[in-house]
Amino acid sequence: MTLIAIQDLYQTTAIACFTVDDERRRILFSTNYGGSYDVWELCLDSLETNRFTFSNQHSSSLFTYDGSVLATFDRDGDEYYQWHRVMDDGQIIPLSEDENGSTAYFASFTSQGHIYYSTNHLNPLINVMRYDAVLGTKTLVQKGEAAPIVCAAVAPDESSYVYTESYSNTHVPAYCMVDGVSQPMIPGAIGPYSTQDVLYDGGDRIYFLTDYGEDFHYLASYKPSTGLFQKELSIEGENMKGLCKVQDELILTTEKGVRDHLHRYFPEEGNCTRIDAPCDTFNQLKATSDGTLLLLGSSAHASDAIYRLSLDGRWECLTPYRVKNKRVKPVAVEYPSFDGLTIEGILYRPDEPNGVTILWPHGGPQKSERLKDRPLLQYLALNGYTIFAPNFRGSIGYGASFMKRVEGDWGVGPRLDCVAGMDWLIAEGLAEKGRIAVMGGSYGGYMSLLLSGRHPEYFCGTVDIFGISDLISYVEAAPETLKPLIVNLVGDPVGQREKLVAESPITYVEDMAGPMLVIHGKNDARVRPEESERIVGRLRERGIPVQYILLEDEGHSFSKHDNEVRVYQEIKHFLDTLL
Description:
Elements: E1 15-21, E2 26-31, E3 38-43, E4 49-51, E5 62-65, E6 68-73, E7 82-86, E8 92-94, E9 104-109, E10 114-119, E11 127-132, E12 137-143, E13 149-154, E14 160-165, E15 174-178, E16 181-184, E17 195-200, E18 206-210, E19 218-223, E20 228-233, E21 239-246, E22 249-256, E23 259-266, E24 271-275, E25 281-287, E26 293-299, E27 302-309, E28 315-317, E29 331-336, E30 342-348, E31 357-359, H1 375-382, E32 386-391, H2 400-403, H3 413-427, E33 436-441, H4 443-454, E34 459-465, H5 471-476, H6 483-490, H7 497-502, E35 516-521, H8 530-542, E36 546-551, H9 561-576
Parallel strand pairs: 31-32, 31-33, 33-34, 34-35, 35-36
Antiparallel strand pairs: 1-2, 2-3, 3-4, 5-6, 6-7, 7-8, 9-10, 10-11, 11-12, 13-14, 14-15, 15-16, 17-18, 18-19, 19-20, 21-22, 22-23, 23-24, 25-26, 26-27, 27-28, 29-30, 30-32
């Protein structure tokens, strides 16, 4: 077998987000191309790229107006994103020193140079603020009172705006604020439903995606002047996730299981056609002022890239990315779970299997494993490991009813879906009981620990990355802004204490399969490092071999190549000892 070095997979880039600067004919994008995250610029005419900032920090949102560049940055993965002005020399200056230590959430931008953004500064239920890029002033727009709010879109003349209230990931109603009066976008709506990707088409028509009354998100419209809500378009079996306006047409992105799709829709004619896409999963969609469509996405065998759609229907890759080595192309598979529910998963099959299979439960849990770039999984698959990633109940892309199955059930249904997946692997000859390693991050780390304690007979080792060991301490330590959502998802540590104890991995530490590798970021604001330290301490008391890596300059993910390379090498070394 030809072994692959991790550095060979890092001839590629990860791109977090991008924006278009039409005035200067350039794209600004947040990427780790230089070894850690910074903002880079790409000239749309010459396709030359240059590093624009030198802060070594991750940006989650970018905005340009009249030559000014504004961007959010956190600090070494702590996810306390704050708006900064980027100077011509690359220096970044905070827009508001008093918001230091708070988090700036979703933002909407206007042609007048205003940023409408949400922040938990002084209010855990979030306030909507408006920042004027010309005057350098900020104004309070709305206070969150019933639930965390974000400004989803603003009318071109700023006469109205749309905001959402988040009660859970599957209950996000939307409202239109006109002259200080709030109107529900779906009048008379009853029961939980969600709203996403809001787009003004002129001043009196608003397009948005919702799953109200349906299992999948569809395209709907709302008219502020009349209060009329109307269902516009649905695509059977596909969940709409994004939209963008290009001249007189809408470009829609949908997800169906592990893949995304692109569609072109003409509202006046009612015609909808599919567009061939250059990759399998999409992160962001934008258009330039002349109507050129830009897409950020990746595939399991190709890393993040920004693509441009030409007039002849061909996609051109604009950003530098290289795949030096052959990649393992995973396939989508299905299997029946313990109660007959069909579960889809992704399977990586190496050319020369080494005898150990890795079960990879994804994070979220209301996310899913998809056909996107996963350097760690590629690295391990190219070195002989069979990898199986099940999209257990609660995963997105399979409808709202499937997604809601994990709410209040973190540790039973999804766990048994994973067990059924392992039994399927064994029956198919793809795994051997006792020769499976379980590995995951965040919720996937929690599930890895829980499976190790509840079903140790399947496993030869465990890798926990940023995982949760105790649901009670996890909920109690949650930020006040997120606590209502987390309680809805996980459970109430007071009223449901017995249930949370039963679903906490630390309850089963006496039965856990060893050895174990535990990894955490010191600046993790979502899952505190204490969650890993607690389980590591208990394992060591039992005499179970456990290695603990605490990353001093990371949070709930990896933002620096050096850390990522180090961790992935440690994971492979750990797994190699199980062979």
